[in-house]
Each structure stands twice: as C-alpha cells, then as structure tokens.
Amino acid sequence: MKPRDRLRVAMQKSGRLTEPALDLLARCGLTFRQSRDKLFCFGEGEPVDLLLVRDDDIPGLIAQGVCDLGIVGRNVLTEFQLTAGRDAEPLGELRPLGFGRCRLSIAVPQELDYQSPQQLQGRRIATSYPGLLGEWLQAQGVEAGVVTLAGSVEIAPKLGTADAICDLVQSGGTLVANQLREADVLLHSEAVLAGPQALPADERGDLLELLLKRLDGVIQVRE
Ligand code: PRT
Ligand code: ZN
Questions:
Q1: Residue 150: domain span
Q2: Coiled-coil intervals in this record (predicted)?
C-alpha cells in the first residue's frame, strides 16, 4: 500500500450502527462532506475520510489496507478473524464503543428443556456465524451440524432445516415471536473500533493516535 496522509474509516452505510457511529465521530470533532454516491465522505476539518459500506465488508477492507479503521460489531470482527484464513492481516479491537450491544446466543424451541450444550450433540444448528459457533462447539466438546444461512435464521427450526439456532439477540422479542428461547450465550457484543495490530508508519499513525485520544475523552464523558 502507498503511504497516505489521510485516515480512512469504514462504517455501516445503512443499519443499526450508522446513526450512533456518525454521532460518535461528530463528538470527536469530525465533520464530513457527503459525496453524491454516498459511498465516500470527505472529511472537512481533520484529514479523516469515511467509507460507507455493508458491515460484513468492514473487516476485509481493513485487512486489505483499503481502510485504516472500521466501526463494526464485535460479532462481525470476531467471525472474520476466525474464518479469514491465516494469510489475512491480523486485526485488533482498538476500543469498545458502548453502542450496538447484543449477544450471540444459542436458542432452542421453547418446549425443549435445555440443561447443557451436550444436548446439542448430533443436532443441526442454523447460524450466520459458522466460525464463532464452530469454535464454541469445539470448546464444549460437542459435535453438531452447522447450517450456514445468510439471514432469517430464526425461522429455520419451524421450517425443519435446523433443531436450534445461533443468532444475535437484543430484546429477545424475535425469539419469542418464533417460539424460541435463549439457552446459552457465546459472545457479548457491541460496536468496536477495529484496526490493524500495527500502527501505520506514515502520518496516519499520528492521526490515529489523535483520534483515539479524542475517542477516549468522549467515551469517558459518556460513562
Ligand atoms: O446491510 P448490512 O449488512 O450493513 O446490515 P445488517 O442487516 O447485517 O446489520 P444490522 O444493521 O442489522 O446490524 C448491525 C450490527 O448491529 C450487528 O452486526 C450487531 O453487532 C449489532 N446489533 C445489535 C444487532 C442487534 N443488536 C440485533 N438485534 N444486529 C442484529 N440484530 C437482529 C438479530 O439478528 C435478530 O434478527 O435483531 C433480531 C433480534 O433482536 P431482538 O431485539 O428481537 O432480540
Ligand atoms: Zn450485514
């Protein structure tokens, strides 16, 4: 990658993390001129630009060096770290950001008397997080079939394509609406600032330090 003198931050274009992420950046004193295609936003005050993308693409964009930082759910970042392969640039969680809180949980049909993960032995579990689920099953010593679905995971038990699911839960309303209940928590998640483990060696390193300092100030005021 060529040395750059502007920092590029990837964030979700449209979704749960968009408004709180923009709000956080504004509190850090960053303002942006929105471009017409709304994919790239030029930073007006500081040399920090935004790339607006799908949340799932954020870790890959950082790993490829297209962006320097990203605001993304820990669930998406960790799944990338587990599934990207050994050659991918290792990413780190630079700061937890305190919004977008949820958990990645196993949920089972309401009538199932769930006592332990061992009851999942030989069952099929639908998820969009095969990496995180696979790691957890292995840690529990459970062998189960992992059915990877891109979305609408919660209807898999009703359709008969899975016996249980592993999905994000916030209020629990979606589970109740689908006659499921939360049985075990795999990961507590929130939005995080993700970045490479090593600071860029050009001006972006100084900018990143400045941004982290402001972020810490903003987060402290909130707490
Ligand atoms: O288009 P793009 O791919 O960018 O968006 P997306 O649809 O993949 O993501 P989005 O906006 O739904 O979520 C972005 C991030 O917000 C997630 O990766 C999580 O880190 C975080 N987050 C916080 C959540 C939730 N809460 C949440 N409740 N993401 C999803 N949900 C879904 C969940 O999948 C389930 O369908 O909401 C439902 C459960 O909510 P409750 O309140 O009924 O329990
Ligand atoms: Zn997504």
A1: 102-189
A2: none
Taking all residues of the chain, what is their mean pLDDT, rounded to a whole number? 94
Mention every residue, 6+ apart, whose C-beta is less than 8 A from residue 213: none
**Site to substitute for ligand 1 among 12, 54, 55, most atoms within 8 A of C-beta:** 55
Ligand 2 center to 148 CA (angstroms): 14
pLDDT tens by residue, 122-134: 999 999 999 999 9
Q: What is the pLDDT of residue 86?
A: 80
For the record, the structure tokens of 133 come out as 């689920």
- Both 29 and 87 in a single domain? yes
Element (H, E) at 177: helix 173-177
Q: Is 75 in the pocket of ligand 1 (CB under 6 A)?
A: yes
Same domain, 177 and 70: no
Q: What is the pLDDT of residue 202?
A: 87
Residue 220's pLDDT is 82
Burial class (CB in 10 A: 0-12, 13-18, 19+), 108: buried
Q: Ligand 1: distance of its center to the CA of 207 in Å?
A: 30
Task: Tell me whether residue 2 is in a domain.
Answer: no
- Work out the number of other CB atoms within 10 angstroms of the CB of residue 104: 25
* 107 Cβ inside 6 Å of ligand 1: no
Our count of domains for the chain comes to 2
Proximal ligand: closest to the CA of 100 = 1
Q: Model's pTM, two decimal places?
A: 0.96
